[in-house]
Amino acid sequence: MIVLKFGGTSVGSAKNIKKVVEIISRNRASKIVVLSAVSGTTNSLLAIAKAIKNNQLIERLELIKLLEKEYLLIISELFATNHYKNKALKFVLEKFNDLKSLSGGAVNLENSIVAQGEVLSTNLVQLFLEESNLSSSLISALDFMIVDEEGEPVVSKIKEKLCPIINKNQAGNTWITQGFICRNNNGAIDNLKRGGSDYTASLIGAAIDAVEIQIWTDINGMHNNDPRFVENTFSIREISFDEAAELAYFGAKILHPQSLIPAKENNIPVLLKNTFSPFSEGTIIKNKTVNKGITAIAAKNGITAIKIKSYRMLMAYGFLKKVFEVFENNQTAIDMITTSEVAVSLTIDNCSKITSIVSELENYGKVEVENNLSIICVAGDFSQNSEGVCAQVVNSLKDIPIRMISYGGSNYNISLLVNSNDKIAALNSLNSGLFKNGVGFQKQLVG
Fold first, then answer.
1. CATH homologous superfamily for the domain 2-218
2. Is the pLDDT of residue 201 over 90?
3. Is the overall model pTM greater than 0.70, yes or no?
4. Cβ-proximal residues to 8 (8 Å cutoff; 6+ apart), any chain
5. d(Cα 35, Cα 16) in Å, to the nearest integer?
6. Cβ–Cβ < 8 Å for 268, 212
7. What value does the mean pLDDT take over residues 200-227?
8. For residue 438, what pLDDT is reported?
């Protein structure tokens, strides 16, 4: 059995939904299909939830009417017969009438409202599959996708609930379900946060011991650099989980950073494919390392650097522990860190508690904060035969001011901190310096 996940753009219109169904029907394997909400729907539902919570009646109705109009258009263009068109209309109108009837005091308001995006997309696709005489079963993620008291999914519990559901619904070899949404340990509707549909697919793959997980998006797999800012990028044919995880965390938008963990732990290959170019090769992610050296580049914006300088740090133990405790107490993760004898520089991407962090750090030394920064991630396998890699990276950025460099903490990543205004220039300089005619620096290293 395999898992196919289609993102919001893939189901973003009637035309695109038809492409998705073509892909589903061509694949003869037993499969679970995970769908995101129609692109733009989650943002609209969040705005509706906010308006309902704030008792903004007029704004709420206007937002619902606009979103409802989008779905009525999809229905009019998707279904060929009045029978299925009417079934779809009935379902969609009921959902929007439910939204109109909610009040600001509703329990679990935002999560319940946002979950309707995936419920809408999966029901429309299921009805279109039925109209197309393709056998499939619609199963609710809320019946098996659960998280514990810490908000973490447990694969064994998901498997325990999912397998009987699959065995009970045997209409053909295709099961349709929702990405992103789940139930928490109290049984209330919750979600796996933004990008969670990738995570859903990976968790399901682990639960059913899938042969492969396919993530279908709107680009031809993972690129060696960001094609939005850099010309002459190319798709990577194969990449390891460790390299892909670094790229995902540091800005490669094709994957959610957490989504690879269940697949990696269960040794399930992940294939990245393009819904709009289904016969393109795409990128396969495996536990096996393919090449030594540099594979790809990604960038992450919205970075803040914090520098703590104190001569009390000189020859003293326990100083770094106190610094880290400040971030732990404020529930703020650190991305990069560099140290000298008397100073520590580190970066964060969540500034919601920056005032408290700075106030606490000032107890230990002078604190400087710098905003509008970006982390450039150069990913690859640097575990061996990596002589000259760091020099090649730095030489490629000889005209770009570098704020920090982190190398050695991971065998799969060199991180560089630059001003966000220099990010695009840095990506292009690295592309020119590290990749020649579609050939990465790893080719030079391994001969």
1. Acetylglutamate kinase-like (3.40.1160.10)
2. yes
3. yes
4. 36, 37, 38, 39, 40, 41, 42
5. 13
6. yes
7. 95
8. 47
The pLDDT value recorded for residue 444 is 37
Count CB neighbours of 330 within 10 A: 16
Whole-angstrom distance, CA of residue 193 vs CA of residue 208: 22
Q: What is the pLDDT of residues 51-109, one digit of tens each?
A: 999 999 899 999 999 999 999 999 999 999 999 999 999 999 999 999 999 877 777 89
How many whole angstroms separate alpha carbon 164 and alpha carbon 144? 10
**CA atoms of 273 and 294, how far apart (whole Å):** 22
CATH 3.30.2130.10 segments of the chain = 295-446
Delimit the CATH 3.40.1160.10 region(s) of the chain: 2-218
Residue 145: pLDDT over 90? yes
- State the residue for tokens 């399930």: 268
Domain covering 295-446 in this structure, CATH number: 3.30.2130.10
* Distance, CA of 48 to CA of 87 (rounded, Å): 25
- Side-chain half-sphere CA neighbours of 206 within 13 A: 21
Tell me the mean pLDDT in the region 356-374.
Answer: 96
Q: Is it the case that residue 443 has pLDDT exceeding 60?
A: no
127 within 8 A of 11, measured Cβ to Cβ: no
- The b-or-e profile of 98-134 (16+ CB within 10 A means b, else e) is ebeebeeeeeebbbbbbbbbbbbbbbbbbbbbbbeee
Q: Is the pLDDT of residue 384 over 70?
A: no
Percentage with pLDDT > 70 across the chain: 94
Q: Give the per-residue pLDDT at 253.
A: 72
